[in-house]
Design a protein that fits this description.
The chain is an alpha/beta fold. The protein has 13 helices and nine strands. A nine-stranded mixed β-sheet has the order 1-9-8-7-6-4-5-3-2, with helices on both faces. Keywords: Hydrolase.
């Protein structure tokens, strides 16, 4: 498949079903195209909203958007970047912000300190603390503190699925896991961090080792799949593109969540490797992108706007 064809397919993003989700192919992408995608992500920043600090560090800030609905659920977004790059504005994709606000959801996107300045464990705690800050200020910000949805992309998806399966982080932030009504994971990785090293050899596995090291006990502790025995967040939606390692681990996580009695679903869409990975971030929120309709229906079912 040519690079042009792979781009068009990822932008189209048709859903893939059945055994076809396992029929992945090797990615072919040039360094020039990678740079183009990174530039596109960095440029696609949302507008509006209100910036606020949730901690004392310069990195501990977020942006909040109010919706017209009073006491609305809130969607809190965590950006990716392999735990070591990006901000809450340049790795988010603006389409989803306007789309979800128009549906009646309040929205926030969280910044956090990057590794190696802190550990990934400390980073996850910072995100939990940002959720705690928002919930404790819900009356002032006019959203429902008992209906929180966490959404993350890439390593941000790892962070939100860990927060939704390991209650220790939110408990230290002074909130209960019960208020996390849903988790939406966008093409995440490291659901099973130890397996990531063999599932996704190359840059993804290298990033896992850089961020989490090579100690099996630590890799186990940082894997949402190994915490999925309950208690868990209310429901999980895993939206993935056609990446072999990501799909395999997503299937495994969904099985573990379901075994614990937690509602979980995986949906897979066109898009190879990094091309699909970035297009899902940028396109989600566009009604012409099939995953948007899947997300909308899932939200109506699990965390509807009153």
């Amino acid at each position: 498949m040519s690079e042009v064809d792979s781009i068009a397919m990822a932008v189209r993003g048709k859903e893939i079903t059945g055994l076809d989700i396992y029929q992945t192919s090797a990615e072919s992408i040039t360094a020039v195209r990678v740079e183009e995608l990174v530039s596109e992500m960095n440029a696609d920043q949302p507008t509006g909203g209100t910036d606020m600090a949730y901690g004392k560090k310069d990195t501990q800030h977020l942006r909040f958007w109010k919706t017209t609905s009073s006491k609305a659920p809130i969607i809190i977004f965590v950006h990716g970047g392999s735990w070591r790059s990006g901000t809450n504005l340049d790795l988010i994709g603006s389409a989803k912000v306007d789309h979800l606000i128009s549906k009646g959801y309040a929205f926030a996107t969280v910044n956090y300190t990057l590794i190696p300045s802190i550990t990934v464990e400390e980073q996850v705690q910072e995100v939990a603390d940002s959720v705690g800050y928002l919930v404790k200020n819900a009356a002032r910000l006019d959203f429902d503190p008992d209906r929180v949805i966490l959404m993350g992309h890439s390593s941000g998806a790892h962070v939100v699925t860990l927060l939704g399966t390991d209650p220790s982080y939110v408990e230290r932030a002074g909130i209960s896991l019960d208020i996390i009504r849903g988790v939406i994971s966008l093409d995440g990785s490291n659901y099973n961090a130890l397996a990531e090293i063999t599932d996704s050899p190359g840059p993804v596995a290298d990033n896992t080792i850089y961020g989490l090291g090579s100690d099996p006990e630590r890799l186990h502790a940082m894997s949402p799949t190994y915490h999925a025995h309950a208690p868990n967040a209310g429901a999980f939606l895993l939206l993935h593109v056609h990446r072999q390692g990501g799909v395999r681990q997503a299937v495994e996580l969904v099985a573990a969540l379901k075994a614990a009695g937690t509602d979980a679903v995986l949906r897979v869409f066109e898009g190879q490797g990094f091309e699909g990975h970035v297009q899902m971030l940028l396109r989600l929120g566009d009604p012409a992108y099939p995953a948007t309709l899947v997300m909308d229906e899932w939200l109506r079912t699990h965390v509807p706007v009153d």
